[in-house]
Amino acid sequence: xxxxxxxxxxxxxxxxxLQSCSVFxxxxxxxxxxxxxxxxxxxxxxLYQGTPAHRDNFMDKCSAxxxxxxxxxKTIRNSEYSLGLRKGFAEKDxxxxxxxxxxxxxxxxxxxxxxxxGTVAMKRVEGWQNQYKKSDASLFFIVDGGTxxxxxxxKTSVAIRNRDTYKIYIxxxxxxxxxxxxxxxxxxxxxxxxxxQHNELYANIMKMVKPQIEKDGVELFSISEKNIEKxxxxxxxxxxxxxxxxxxxxxxxxxxxxxxxxxxTDLERQPKKEISISTTNVLKKKDFKxxxx
Length: 293
What we know:
Helix content is about 40%, strand content about 20%. It folds into two domains: about 25-150 and about 235-290, Cyclophilin (Beta Barrel); about 150-215, no CATH class. The protein starts with a helix and ends with a helix. It is built from nine helices and nine strands.
């Protein structure tokens, strides 16, 4: 009997190990889905196996009808669309939660899970204390990023992410006595508003300080060639990589992006005509296939 139990236990461990390896190899695998009905249109989100904490949190909330009656509270054309806010609440209040409360989730980043067009991600808790980039457990957004992306836009996104790091090093570099002429030239070009020459000089100075950045072990943001191809193919928001946890993607109803991009908004990017979530419905893979395949 003990031998049989030992064999069964070993088989169980092997099954768990194989399942873990499968998720590691393919974190984009989808086994669970959520139908989301809104007053602007309906869509279905497939939830990634590679982000289990976010997947389970979203499924639990949708099963409990947590999002029913919440609003699509911000639409930024060709960028992102924010959902899940209750009437009478402000996003800034929701995103300043206790960092250790059950209103937050640990970040789940994976180099294979990208903020591509049509993906769904959780908002992030705000504040300098959030060094681990925890997610808010309720507010989420749909990534758009527009259409027809180009390599220049992607490189610009990389530059923006690295801007603050470079500025720290460049400021120190220009304070050195031997670099006074560079500092004076940069200031003169800025004063004369000859920005093309100014930017060219600044780019050259960036190259000069890069070896020191690398020597100090500071990691600069970069996008692999493989991922660049994905952004060029599908669009998205490259600068959100490693910033917000993406936990799923729209698998049915991508036209919702076109509808939301045309919504008329006020100066705060809030829809002038209220858009709300009517209901949500969680589906297993077999039920999704029966209904949509």
